[in-house]
What we know:
Layout: H1 10-20, H2 24-31, H3 39-51, E1 64-69, H4 80-94, E2 98-103, E3 117-121, H5 125-133, E4 139-141, E5 151-154, H6 157-170, E6 176-180, H7 184-199, E7 207-211, H8 216-226, E8 230-233, H9 239-250, E9 260-264, E10 278-281, H10 284-296, E11 305-307, E12 311-313
Parallel strand pairs: 1-2, 1-3, 3-4, 4-5, 5-11, 6-7, 6-8, 8-9, 9-10
Antiparallel strand pairs: 10-12
Helix pairs in contact: 1-2, 1-3, 4-10, 6-7
Amino acid sequence: xxxxxxxxxxxxxxxxxxxxxxxxxxxxxxxxxxxxxxxxxxxxxxxxxxxxxxxxxxxxxxxxxxxxxxxxxxxxxxxxxxxxxxxxxxxxxxxxxxxxxxxxxxxxxxxxxxxxxxxxxxxxxxxxxxxxxxxxxxxxxxxxxxxxxxxxxxxxxxxxxxxxxxxxxxxxxxxxxxxxxxxxxxxxxxxxxxxxxxxxxxxxxxxxxxxxxxxxxxxxxxxxxxxxxxxxxxxxxxxxxxxxxxxxxxxxxxxxxxxxxxxxxxxxxxxxxxxxxxxxxxxxxxxxxxxxxxxxxxxxxxxxxxxxxxxxxxxxxxxxxxxxxxx
Length: 327
């Protein structure tokens, strides 16, 4: 995707009007986001402008940024999407940008207004395909699985898995379970951990791969039946907190005495669990700031891939085990 600056001349406006088969006044009203224009006409004008690579001049207005995110009923309060959405909104407000939040259940609205850039925290296939079809607009995606289409800011999922594997291995654990999402990131994290353990000579049957597409209590039962000495819950949406409760309150299993538990950081919550949770933290504030910086960048001629590091926060939920405990 090539991003260029375009002149806001009457000649270009006329070309947009001609291509969309509307008047110049209609084009002007569409670019000023007037809702007096019928949706079909608005969509036709915006499509024509994007095909021509035209952008309205921003010198006399705030840049308009669309934030595409999950609908509230899918978002966990305090979880990854919820927290990242807050950070991005704050970073955009500090940049004096106009913000339009579009949830995936309203994704068709994305085509009905003019935006100077889009930041996506979303996962639905239809959303991704719609964004891929947009032309001449900077789109920042917060995962590297679509880096051929969008600017991406991401955490290396396989490297994160290797970090988790290295840590648990260093604590003496050789029989390890992972509860992970079934998406690109979750599968990649599991692969990173598995690859690390296999490189250390640990047999594949000593690793339990559990997708949390199944009910979480059944996933926990599978882990207990497997006899893992350590469990990593890879998702950032507080699943590790649910798992901690299921283990201790429902199954009567002690953490870390009976099983060690490694999770993902939920700021302000993880450290106050019983026990305080050892976690891997995503740099959510830095992700948000980089996304806003990138969506405002001018003159970029190639898609950008920006990798940010995670860090391990050691607390009290993972214990070291001796050779006698190894399976």
